[in-house]
Amino acid sequence: MEVIGRKAEKVYRRLRNDIDAGRFPENSALPAGAQLCARYGVSHPTLRKAVAVLAEESRLIVKHGAGTFVAPPPAPKKGASQTVAVMAMDGDTCLRTLQSLLLKDGYLMNVYLQGDAQWSPVEEGKFLSYVKDHRCAALLAFCSPLPPTHAPALRALSYAGVRVIHYEHYRLALPEQEYLLPDYARAGHMAAVKLLIAGYTQLFVVAHWANPSPATRLVEQGFAQAVAEHGGGYDPERQHLCIITGTADHDARMLECVTGLPDNSGVICVSVGAANNLRQGLAAAGRGPGEVGVIGILNTSEPDTSTVDCFGFEREAQMRRLVDLATGDVVTEVKELIAPVWQPAGTIRKM
After folding, report:
1. CATH topology for the 184-314 domain
2. pLDDT tens digits, 172-221
3. Other CB atoms closer than 10 Å to residue 51's CB: what's the count?
4. Which of 142, 292, 309, 314 suits 199 as a labelling partner, its CA being 20 to 30 A distant?
5. Are strands 265-269 and 240-242 parallel, antiparallel or unpaired?
6. Fold type of domain 83-183+316-337
7. Longest distance between any two alpha carbons in the chain, whole Å
8. CB atoms within 10 A of CB 83
9. ∠ CA 175-86-328 to the nearest 5 degrees?
10. What is the CATH code for 6-70?
11. Which residues, including other chains, have CB under 8 Å from residue 1's CB and lie 6 or more apart?
């Protein structure tokens, strides 16, 4: 839901429920504004905000001078669309896997690339409009975490018959639409517990972006919870390390991290690529798993294989499920967090 205020959001939900329940039949005019204000106990400006959101979702039609009408449901598709829309971070192996699976099933893939964290809500909004206008079979979504979060546009897609399935987190809260999301918070929690069981007494989490993604923040949430429960408390000033990828001081920060970590440290990196870089730096300094243990968290843009101990999410199986959900005839709602799977590689002590 876009930020329209608590009162307006409450009216929006009540009015939408009244429409869904048939209290205001399709194609009928809504009662006059004064009547609706009295019905919901709000002012005219608050009511207008709620009506504007429903109009943006194609649930209402505002005809200036004539009134506001309940929109009819979208006309059934004449033949199933053979295109699945995909929003992704960049052109990675995840997209290649999706494309191969969709082509085998007789579907085309229409892709919008976010582009190396250069989120553009404006361009994203244009793509969502395109998906709705062309009635794609489904949208596999990795939305921008920047406002506006296009909540009305996503609802409008669902109402128009486009199945929306989120496969990567774009905010900390779970989405309203369907989702098949990696449980990053659980991965962070399990990684911290692994390190504690292996006997590491000082734990750290390493991020690699100045503005952390929701996935990074979820990993850190899980890490912080585990450390608070089992490790004596979490101090982000001391235990959160940031080595920003691609910056001029990256190598110096990495060296500082490698040499500055105390013995018996356990480190969680919020990507396997970064974990491998750290492991190589530690190896060059002569520090192995006996002194510093390293665990990575596989994200959806990385291959399933890893040279460091990690928690992954069986990405290829996840892509197969996404394609089956997007193209299948039977529509069973899915709202599922994918449990992380342990993949050992020998970068922490044996337990």
Report:
1. Rossmann fold (3.40.50)
2. 999 989 999 999 999 999 999 999 999 999 999 988 766 678 989 999 99
3. 21
4. 314
5. unpaired
6. Rossmann fold (3.40.50)
7. 78
8. 16
9. 80
10. 1.10.10.10
11. 9, 12, 53, 151, 152, 176
